[in-house]
Write a structure and sequence with these properties.
Layout: E1 4-5, E2 11-22, E3 32-38, E4 49-50, E5 54-56, E6 62-64, E7 73-78, E8 81-90, E9 94-103, E10 108-111, E11 116-118, E12 125-127, E13 133-137, H1 149-165, E14 176-193, E15 195-197, E16 201-204, E17 207-210, E18 225-227, H2 228-238, E19 242-246, H3 256-264, E20 269-273, E21 285-288, E22 306-311, H4 314-324, E23 332-337, H5 343-354, E24 359-360, H6 364-368
Helix pairs in contact: 2-3
Amino acid sequence: MNMQITSPDRITYPIVETFHSIQGEGYWTGVNAFFIRLGGCDVHCPWCFVSGTSILMGDLTEKPIETIQIGDRVMSFDRGKLVKTKVTHVHRPRIAQTIALKFESGLVTSCTPDHQYKLIGTNTLRQAEYIQEAYSIDKSNLDFTEADIDDRAEYLVGAVARKVRQIESEEKKQWLKPDKVVTRFFAGAREVYNFATESGYYFADRHLVKNCDTKQSWNASLHPQRAIEDLIKEATTANPAIVVITGGEPLMHDLNPLTEQLHSHHLRVHLETSGAHPFSGEFDWVTFSPKRFKPPHNSIYDRADELKVVVANTEDLQWAEEQAAKIPDRALKYLQPEWNTPDSQELICQYILQHREWRLGLQIHKFLGVR
């Protein structure tokens, strides 16, 4: 817990940012809202690769994953384009159980079982322990230089995307092609690494994978401590319909003092949380967005006013139903497409048409281009 008490009236919290905007998702979509983003989060994804995994760089050379640094440029795939993207965060190595995948191309890679790969012919992601094939990049077929990438990327990848969906066509060279998994086995506990990019993807051992969903708010010590009284002044000046406490993971902190003071100033308070820590605070609305890789604390279930599950594949739908069974009947239930997985929209829509208790959750602020 990173709340600090300097005096009874100067309780402080690590604050990433505060901002006044329109709520973009869930029941309160479209409402005038003041956001308080707390620092600190231990709910980040566990997807990682072992040391020695080869990363395709922006100049088409390759480097071991353990040598990747913030600011490096790596090759990526972003909404139909081959792009060079910047590394925004590098995780400290940790020890984790891994599996090894041997592909038809002869490439072998080892990663955590839940690292997500891009599926062939779709915009869907699937975990390493389930994939049957992945996108593989063949550098020998690249007929352009690094300097050409930014200018020619959209044309080249557009052509490849059509080829991937029509594998039988061999009229042009394919540098992005299917690579089937021929063997999969557990590889034991290994030291693993990961990083995040601006685009959300990178090439690991020449296969296209999703990066870790890193947020700048994870490390609470990197953000300034601000007193509750300062936050109250800013919130009351904004005069919002509701104050949204988000993160990071807000429940890493004792939220009782903050919510008590907000309510004493006649402000409604909304919590956005994964529910991974014991519940604290008094709220007018609670959005519960659980993560498969960090089980929720039991104290969250009775307090949820709405359940929001981000869906990339069918396994996420099963997880959503498991969580829905534990919340009150009155709670709203939303399935939200994974932003970098367009095919998840169709998956969700079809599911909702067959399960009327679910609603489609959209991040309207992203479409509008507002905070």
